[in-house]
TrEMBL record:
<dbReference type="InterPro" id="IPR013783">
    <property type="entry name" value="Ig-like_fold"/>
</dbReference>
<dbReference type="Pfam" id="PF01033">
    <property type="entry name" value="Somatomedin_B"/>
</dbReference>
<dbReference type="Pfam" id="PF03782">
    <property type="entry name" value="AMOP"/>
</dbReference>
<feature type="domain" description="SMB">
    <location>
        <begin position="1"/>
        <end position="40"/>
    </location>
</feature>
<dbReference type="InterPro" id="IPR001212">
    <property type="entry name" value="Somatomedin_B_dom"/>
</dbReference>
<dbReference type="InterPro" id="IPR035976">
    <property type="entry name" value="Sushi/SCR/CCP_sf"/>
</dbReference>
<dbReference type="Pfam" id="PF23263">
    <property type="entry name" value="C8-3_MUC4"/>
</dbReference>
<dbReference type="InterPro" id="IPR051495">
    <property type="entry name" value="Epithelial_Barrier/Signaling"/>
</dbReference>
<dbReference type="InterPro" id="IPR001846">
    <property type="entry name" value="VWF_type-D"/>
</dbReference>
<dbReference type="InterPro" id="IPR056619">
    <property type="entry name" value="C8-3_MUC4"/>
</dbReference>
<dbReference type="GO" id="GO:0016020">
    <property type="term" value="C:membrane"/>
</dbReference>
<dbReference type="Pfam" id="PF00084">
    <property type="entry name" value="Sushi"/>
</dbReference>
<dbReference type="InterPro" id="IPR014756">
    <property type="entry name" value="Ig_E-set"/>
</dbReference>
<protein>
    <submittedName>
        <fullName>SUSD2 protein</fullName>
    </submittedName>
</protein>
<keyword id="KW-0812">Transmembrane</keyword>
<keyword id="KW-0768">Sushi</keyword>
<keyword id="KW-0472">Membrane</keyword>
């Protein structure tokens, strides 16, 4: 009997395959498409209630569909008139790819399987949510000068119903903080409007909620077809954004919002006093805006204040850009935020309300999610956002908030080290050595015993503009993994499209450009700049460039003395970067032929390869072929013939850049040379931004200096060479230093001033 993929998706069977690669290899079992599900859409908010289509199982209308997520949460599906099956996504307290199975016999067996991508509420498209028109009004309702009608709009086609109900849900966390019994819960509170026409719009004058509902101050609205029960879970729904429920708070709030919020602020302050200090555990901020934007393995743009989107920084007046630490802190799941002004200097809350504030709960949550303080978005709202409403927005007690959430400065910040590869591959190591290695094959670019990080590169032959093979190669694929994380591969497909593979499956970025994956985050910009951010803080950036990949790797300082591969031993010393697998080293003045032997030494083996071999060409060339193709000999030093018309153009394009010249001569293409020149320039800029003064290797900060009692200070820059001056209020005399300067030792000059 022929093997079947029922319950076997992802496996290789005796006579055929149920692995995702079987499609391009033509080795699938006959029923692969029936049992291994393709769905559309493939993603939705973690709140659930989204209807998705199962594209490939033709069922009969009498099938009773059940969908089971994570082996435990069961939702009802249905078969539409066209015979296609649909599932409804569940409420989840986590983000990332969630496995699901489908039953067509009312839950007896679940032979069909697939994955659903659960995303943070803020990553969902606006069409998918219902819109709180003028959201600020909802969240300030009842404070001075805010009242009247509130309006809600939604895409009415989303729900197949003539009439809908609008419900209010609240979020709470119960149990003891940071203990096993701390749990998160979304709870149905009451129905705001019943059996209203599904017209896509609803306006109302909000009334203070009755009973104990008005103590719920953080929540969300849900619209459902009115034939379902109140609060019924995992049914077709449209959710709003999560927001501060000012509009439904009790009468006491409306009578005196300032007093009500002040009491809440003080209560929050007392609770904070009893909680552990998470700030000791979060990483310090980069010292400068340039560093913050260059350290892409550890920091990512904060969408609430983005220089590329016009610096609309509502919560951080005076800032032009903020970043957030990508990884939550290990024990408390806390987050870091760093903001910068137009001079590129960090803004501290000590000096300005526009300063950055760290978070007790990381906004994106953190694995394993599910429980406080790690629930994506919502834990953060409860500890860091609603409290900001209490203290700063609904009352005038912001000093309480800033006392509990002061900015971190950059005294312990250390920039990561960067390595790059590009063009006809040129390598720039972490320690600044550069060389060209034109091998054809698959090689270890960097591996580390610290976190089992492995980044591997595949090269393919370059071609002349007329299509014939050139005597050089370029990076065509890069694959990577750390510890037991997901495996990511970025490659050029055979038709020269950039593809990203997650555990051998080609990813689509049509719905989501940011994904929370196992052991890493993955981000793709609209022009396909791919960034992988591993949980160790190491980052890998890849972009397609004129037919070859350009690669940047950023490693934090803890990787010092823990790397090997083509990018060498990262230890600040370029002299030992040509280290072979057996730990012998070669002089940095080696000939191109010797460098070629060094590169060949780092060829990988099939047993440790992270690459996906899903076409005949890849199997033949790289899986069954040699990992380093010994019969391919590149040009080691191309001739510059003065009579060659290309040489004149090359000189004006490349100037003195040796990599650019090399690539123009070996590929006879000015375009290839130009993209190499730009990549080389980018690398130099990156290193300059990360390490502004190579002799010091780090930006020195002397830390915050406050004004003397009964006096004032001038200056908010605390980096090397900056001077702060002090003066006293009228009637007071200054003793100590009138000016203090930040010195190389990291200490301020002079003595503490007093008035």
């Amino acid at each position: 009997a022929q093997d079947s993929c029922a319950n076997r998706c992802g496996e290789l069977l005796g006579s055929c395959s149920c692995q995702v690669t079987c499609q391009s290899l033509g080795t699938c079992c006959p029923d692969y498409k029936e049992f291994c599900l393709q769905i559309s859409p493939y993603s939705g908010s973690l709140m659930g209630g989204k209807d998705f289509l199962i594209n490939n199982t033709a069922l009969n209308a009498s099938s009773v569909i059940k969908c089971r997520f994570k082996q435990q949460i069961i939702t009802s599906g249905y078969v539409a008139k066209d015979g296609k099956a649909h599932c409804i996504s569940p409420l989840l307290y986590e983000t990332g790819f969630i496995p699901f199975e489908v039953s067509t016999d009312n839950g007896l067996t679940f032979p069909y399987s697939g994955t659903w991508l659960s995303v943070h509420l803020s990553k969902v498209s606006d069409e998918e949510k219902c819109t709180l028109v003028n959201e600020t009004k909802w969240q300030y309702y009842g404070t001075p000068n805010t009242g009247g009608n509130l309006t809600l709009t939604w895409t009415h086609q989303t729900l197949a119903a003539t009439h809908v109900n609008i419900e209010v849900w609240g979020y709470q966390e119960t149990g003891d903080s940071y203990s096993e019994n701390w749990t998160a819960e979304w709870k149905y509170l009451y129905t705001l409007a019943r059996e209203i026409p599904n017209a896509g719009k609803f306006s109302f004058i909000p009334q203070p909620a009755t009973g104990n509902y008005s103590t719920w101050d953080f929540g969300i609205l849900r619209i459902i077809p009115s034939n379902y029960f109140d609060g019924q879970s995992n049914i077709p729904s449209i959710w709003s954004s999560d927001h501060a429920l000012a509009w439904h708070l009790e009468k006491d709030f409306r009578n005196d919002p300032n007093a009500w919020a002040t009491a809440k602020c003080l209560e929050w302050d007392r609770k904070e006093e009893l909680l552990p200090n998470f700030r000791e555990e979060i990483i310090d901020c980069p010292c400068t805006l340039a560093q913050a934007r260059a350290d892409t393995g550890r920091f990512h743009t904060d969408y609430g204040c983005d220089i590329e989107k016009g610096s609309v920084c509502t919560y951080h007046p005076g800032a032009v850009h903020c970043v957030r630490a990508i990884q939550a802190s290990p024990q408390y799941g806390a987050g870091q935020q760093c903001c910068y002004d137009s001079t590129g200097t960090q803004i501290l809350t000590h000096d300005s309300t526009g300063g950055s504030t760290p978070d007790r709960g990381h906004d994106w949550g953190s694995p394993p999610f599910l429980k406080p303080p790690r629930v994506p978005g919502f834990s953060h709202w409860l500890y860091d956002v609603i409290s900001f409403y209490y203290c700063c927005l609904w009352s005038d007690n912001c000093d309480f908030y800033m006392k509990r959430r002061p900015s971190s400065d950059c005294r312990t910040y250390r920039p990561p080290r960067a390595a790059s590869a590009f063009g006809d591959p040129h390598f720039l190591t972490f320690d600044g050595l550069n060389f060209t290695f034109n091998g054809l094959g698959e090689y270890t670019l960097v591996e580390s015993d610290l976190t089992s990080l492995r980044v591997q590169g595949r090269t393919q032959q370059a071609h002349f503009p007329n299509g014939t093979g050139a005597q050089g190669t370029g990076l065509s694929a890069v694959a990577m993994q750390e510890n037991n994380s997901d495996v990511i591969e970025v490659r050029y497909s055979e038709d020269m499209n950039l593809q990203v593979l997650l555990n051998q499956r080609v990813l689509s970025f049509t719905e989501q450009s940011w994904m929370d994956l196992k052991g890493l985050y993955l981000y793709s910009t609209p022009d396909q700049n791919i960034t992988v951010m591993f949980s160790s803080g190491s980052g890998v950036e890849i972009r397609g460039n004129g037919g070859f990949l350009t690669l940047k790797i950023l490693l934090p300082e803890k990787f010092m003395n823990h790397t090997q591969g083509l990018f060498g031993v990262m230890n600040g010393n370029p002299e030992d970067d040509y280290t072979f697998k057996n730990k012998t080293t070669m002089s940095v003045h080696a000939s191109p032929q010797q460098v070629f032997e060094f590169g060949a030494n780092w060829a990988i083996e099939n047993g440790t390869s992270l690459f996906t071999y899903d076409t005949e060409f890849l199997l033949k060339s790289f899986f069954y072929g040699e990992k380093h193709n010994t019969s391919f000999l590149p040009v080691f030093s191309p001739d510059e013939d003065p009579a060659d018309p290309l040489v004149g153009e090359m000189v004006s394009l490349c100037d003195s850049d040796p990599f650019c010249r090399f690539d123009v001569l070996t590929t006879r293409s000015l375009q290839v040379g130009n993209s190499t020149r730009l990549s080389h320039q980018n690398h130099k800029l990156l290193v300059e931004h990360l390490e502004p003064d190579m002799s010091l290797l780090l930006v020195i900060s002397c830390g915050w200096l406050g004004p003397p009692t009964n006096g004032s200070k001038n200056g908010t820059n605390y980096l090397l060479g900056s001077t702060i001056s002090f003066s006293c209020s009228p009637g007071y005399e200054l003793t100590g230093s009138q000016q203090r300067t930040c010195q190389e030792s990291g200490a301020w000059s002079g003595d503490t001033p007093q008035c």
